[in-house]
Amino acid sequence: MFFGITMSPTQKEFIEQQCKIHNLTNVEIKIADITTHEMEDKYDRVIVVELIEHLKNYELLLRKISNWMTPDGLFFIEHHCHKTFAYSYEPLDEDDSFTEFFFPAGTFTILSANLLRIFGMMLRL
Questions:
Q1: Are residues 59 and 94 part of one domain?
Q2: 22, 36, 54, 122: which has the highest count of C-beta atoms within 10 A?
Q3: Selection from 60, 59, 56 nearest residue 105 by Cα
Q4: What domain count does the chain have?
Q5: Tens of pLDDT along 17-66?
Q6: Of all helices (H) and strands (E), which one includes residue 17?
Q7: 67-102, pLDDT tens digit by residue?
Q8: How far apart are CA 71 and CA 58, in angstroms?
Q9: Which string of b and e fits 25-37 if b means at least 16 CB within 10 Å?
Q10: How many Å is the Cα radius of gyration of the chain?
């Protein structure tokens, strides 16, 4: 069974359509806020795609993920980053739709293996 979380109804719809096209019946997608969502289930694989750069509290996300993983589980992460600097997205003006719609209160992270070491102390690296 595959379980996914998104905040986007259109993303959920797209994933479900792709599952129908490819005859995948073992996928469940839920609309939820990852920062407040709680669950008891444990998973042997956790994949995070383009999420961490939308958050300010990396530790919260990584703590939740570690609680959702089996002891021998594997964690995969893909994220946008800058090669040198981390910086917060703040709207430049009222026409800054990129910040408003794609990175509200987000932070562009630094490409670094230390990111997970610093904020992921509950994950075994």
A1: yes
A2: 54
A3: 56
A4: 2
A5: 999 999 999 999 999 888 888 888 898 888 777 777 666 677 788 888 88
A6: helix 9-21
A7: 888 988 888 877 666 666 666 666 667 776 656 655
A8: 21
A9: eeeebeeeebeee
A10: 16
Q: What is the pLDDT of residue 33?
A: 84
Helix/strand/coil for 55: coil
**Residue-number span of the structural domain to which 11 is assigned:** 1-32
What is the β-pairing status of strands 2-6 and 27-31?
Answer: parallel
- Could you identify the residue written with the tokens 């259109």? 10
Q: What is the pTM of this model?
A: 0.65
DSSP, collapsed to helix, strand or coil, labels residue 11 as helix
Cα-Cα-Cα-Cα torsion 103, 6, 75, 39, nearest 10 degrees, comes to 130
Q: What type of residue sits at position 94?
A: E
Please give the C-alpha separations between residue 52 and each of 11, 30, 94, 110, in angstroms, as whole numbers: 17, 18, 25, 11
Together in a domain, 70 and 109: yes
* Beta carbons of 2 and 25 less than 8 angstroms apart: no
Q: How many helices (H) and strands (E) does the chain have?
A: 4, 7
